[in-house]
């Protein structure tokens, strides 16, 4: 799918940046690594408990206004470190303090008033890094390079699905379109919480 032109609102957002419950203990057939782990890439290990905590944190922090599903949460969790490194190389480091400020504004945008949890701050940091990488390279070539590395070496539980760069790029383009249609302006980055790099395996659940 050809990359879509990043709207001006999203570019402005880049500049403003500064720019579940644990699954059963037995491993499903074909799974590598710890059965309690949803996916591993490099130094990042995301457990099923972690995913449950992330999804729950979004629901609680935004008072139900913005809820990520497991695949969306896992996508951002796996990509955060390589995207932060890429953003830093591009000259737009996304520090935790910046992520915390944006997470707080995100919560306000959804009509909630509490403080962001650590899970939401970390996820926001990943989303901001994704925004920077996309804004700096609207062709999505840099993002493709980052994602291809994950696809090549990540160890993913069959229950999480299959990691796919093609799926990621498709949902990124969808997020860009959605942000533009909603006229989100400086909050266009929030749509990137909805991206997912995971697709179903070509086999029945019973065979996993």
How is this structure best described in words?
This protein is mainly α and 208 residues long. The protein has one domain (38-199). Helices cover 52% and strands 7% of the residues. It contains seven helices and five strands, in the order H-E-E-H-H-H-H-H-E-E-H-E. It has helices spanning 8-18, 48-61, 70-89, 96-109, 118-136, 141-153, 165-182, and strands at residues 37-41, 44-47, 155-156, 162-163, 198-199. The strands form two sheets. It has a three-stranded antiparallel β-sheet with strand order 2-1-3. Strands 4-5 form a two-stranded antiparallel ribbon. A hairpin with a 2-residue loop joins strand 1 and strand 2. Helix 4 crosses helix 5. The radius of gyration is 16 Å and the shape is globular. It starts with 7 loop residues before the first helix and ends in a 9-residue tail after the last strand. Mean pLDDT is 86; it is low at 18-31 and 203-208.
Structural class: mainly alpha
Q: How would you sum up the global shape?
A: globular
Give the topology string: H per helix, E per strand.
Answer: HEEHHHHHEEHE
Helix percent band: 40-55%
Oligomer: single chain
Task: Report the count of strand segments.
Answer: 5
Supply the number of structural domains. 1
SS element count, helices: 7
Low-confidence stretches: 18-31, 203-208
Q: Which strand order spans the largest sheet, edge to edge or round the barrel? A: 2-1-3
Distance between the termini: 30 Å
Major beta sheet summary: 3 strands, antiparallel
What's the pLDDT, averaged over the residues? 86
